[in-house]
Amino acid sequence: MRTIVVLNPKGGCGKSTIATNIAAYFSIKGKRVTLADCDPQGSSDDWLSARPDKYSAINGIAVEHDRLKIPRNTEILIIDTPAAMEDKRLKKYLRKAQSLVMPIIASPIDIRAAERFLNELFSFRGSINNKIKIATIANRVREDTLIAAKLENYLNNIRLPNGKKLPFMTMLRASQNYIRASEQGLSIFELPPSKTYYDREQWAPLLRWLNSKRSIPK
Ligand SMILES: Nc1ncnc2c1ncn2[C@@H]1O[C@H](COP(=O)(O)OP(=O)(O)OP(=O)(O)O)[C@@H](O)[C@H]1O
Ligand SMILES: [Mg+2]
Asked: Which CATH number fits domain 2-211: 3.40.50.300, 3.40.50.720, 2.40.10.10, 3.20.20.70?
């Protein structure tokens, strides 16, 4: 089973949006997808409830007593995490995951918070899946702003303690398409291609990464 966790303790950075879009993407491809909503707010769960029957099916599970009951036939597990989380729970999800996708909002405060969190994460290495593959993405970017350029520069230059570069995948623009899709239980991949062409282009590097061995520990 392929396990992807979407994580950033910062609220509202786009975790549920990214998690639901990744889930829909793989389910459109014919994979058996389970979307685990670990957030008591239940955004992913709400999204699944709104998803029309005629679209590809995605299995939804909520966390019960801190446990995930994952259906046996799951091929792809996407874990949508809550904003603030105790270290114990955080480590638990990270132990399960092969790939971690971290959305970051393009603002100075969010960039700094992301940096702090990444440092904290590195200090956990040893107690989590040591080989977990991490990708950061900038989300809700208003293009051509100075802060967007700064974020891209920062994300391009983060290095892991072992000196390797942290893969910065892509920038996703702020677009009504995400809001429109999420209201209907859909992904941008299920909206008309002519309206989402640009967003799909921006997703391509992340999807390439998720489909490649680069996002799976050796
Ligand atoms: N690229 C985007 N363009 C426009 N709106 C977006 C984008 N990404 C997310 N949003 C919107 O921003 C809001 C917050 O996104 P989302 O719920 O995915 O964040 P979250 O990290 O899951 O939040 P929480 O920490 O509360 O779980 C939502 O209303 C969502 O529709
Ligand atoms: Mg959420």
From this structure: 3.40.50.300
